[in-house]
Amino acid sequence: MTPLDLPFDADEMLAGLKPWIECESPTYDAAAVNRMMDIAAYEMAALGAQIERIPGRMGFGGSVRARFPHPDMGRTPGILIAGHMDTVHPIGTLEKLPFRREGDICFGPGLMDMKGGNYISLEAIRQLIRAGLQTPLPVTVLFTPDEEVGTPSTRDLIEAEAARNTYVLVPEPGHEDGGVTIGRYAIARFNLRTVGQPSHAGARLEDGKSAIAAMARKIIEIEDMTGPDCTFSVGVIHAGQWVNCVSSSCEAEALSMAKKQEDLDDGIARMLALQGVANGVEFQVTRGVTRPVWRPDQPGTLKIFEVAREIAKELGFEMTGRSQGGGSDGNFTGAMGIPTLDSLGVLGSGLHTLNEHIQVSSLTERARLMAGLLMRLR
Predict the structure, then answer these.
(1) 335: how many CB neighbours lie within 10 A of its CB?
(2) Which alpha helices (DSSP H) does the chain contain, by range?
(3) At what angle do helices 361-376 and 299-315 cross, to 10 degrees?
(4) Residue 139 pLDDT
(5) pLDDT cut 70: percent of the chain above it
(6) Are 335 and 155 in contact (CB under 8 A)?
(7) pLDDT tens-place string over residues 192-238
């Protein structure tokens, strides 16, 4: 039996995925993320993996590292499957986006990004074990808790584990055409703050300096800096408590993305140059987490992409590979020069929305792709 002949069953995989999706795990709820890690750790332990629970830090949940039985484990660099278990959906999203199937579509928070991809990776390992097939290289799985906010607490853990391996496979959502990611754009995050002067908004409006109004003007200025080489967007804003008070502080978060590192560096410089005081209000900018450029022309990545293309042909489709935006932890491993293949997960649409869903038929195809890679990479 070859990996492509393994008896993957979409209905069984959906049944296995249901408790994963119904265990909501938003990034900022460490206890919720840890509950999800418990489920994954149990399933991997049942497959015979050596499980390590790594405590969380910086207020985030913990990580799970699983090393699967292999005669060369610990002696030969192998394959790292890297995924995150946190989602952008807050607790209670299941009430609006319940786990449900409608024909070839299945809905659920975090199903596409990226619990579906994580699950099919374990299913690929499960079926290989059941078939008595031994992967040429040792396999390690690392699930982390904070990718959706830029991986501030586990970047060094991911990079250290990647350095112990020859290849990195990232089951983030696949492209619409079934293609994969062989490079990613650079991303920088910024924390923004305006500091104004409080006053009573009804009785002494003229005495105040509104931090909210100043931030609103800065948001327009920031987003107007977007060009073909570097984009800017503000996605979070917090301010105010009483409508009858002129707000003295306002905080926001911005994101910048560029295809080239030098363009991102220029964008960072432009953002930092916006700091200063105007009309009695101070504007502060501090750097947040950054994802480096992962170039799409690395020989090692192109090598494993060719292996994936051959498997795709046997599965009946032509696989494409491209660089794209939307950061992942593949940015880190790819930037290290470690052969990395990203977007190996399930196909679907609506990630990060209340319409997040996957194509059920992609479960078996992507599981076969993962199993094929685990058996052919050497």
Answers:
(1) 20
(2) 10-21, 30-46, 93-96, 116-130, 155-163, 211-223, 261-272, 299-315, 330-335, 361-376
(3) 130
(4) 98
(5) 100
(6) no
(7) 999 999 999 999 999 999 999 999 999 999 999 999 999 999 999 99
Q: Which residues of 251-271 are buried (b: 16+ CB within 10 A; e: fewer)?
A: ebbbbbbbbeeebbeebbeeb
Q: Would you say 344 and 370 are in contact if contact means Cβ atoms under 8 Å apart?
A: yes
pLDDT, one tens digit per residue, over 115-135 is 999 999 999 999 999 999 999
Question: Would you state the structure tokens that stand for residue 352, as one six-digit string?
Answer: 């990060």
> Using CA atoms, how far apart are residues 296 and 183, in angstroms rounded to an integer?
4
CB-based burial of residue 300 (10 Å sphere; 0-12 exposed, 13-18 middle, 19+ buried)? middle
Burial class (CB within 10 angstroms; exposed 0-12, middle 13-18, buried 19+) of 241: exposed
Contact 362, 316 (CB under 8 A): no
* DSSP-based three-state secondary structure for 3: helix
Terminal alpha carbon distance of the chain: 19
Give residue for tokens 């995924």.
Answer: 83
User: Which of 327, 334, 362, 336 minimizes the C-alpha distance to 347?
Assistant: 362
CB 183 within 8 A of CB 343: no
Residue-wise pLDDT tens digits, 139-179:
999 999 999 999 999 999 999 999 999 999 999 999 999 99
Instruction: List alpha helices for 167-298, DSSP H.
Output: 211-223, 261-272
Order of all β-strands in the sheet with 100-102: 100-102, 105-107, 357-359, 348-349
Is pTM beyond 0.85? Reply is: yes
Tell me how far apart the alpha carbons of residues 103 and 106 are, in angstroms, rounded to a whole number: 8
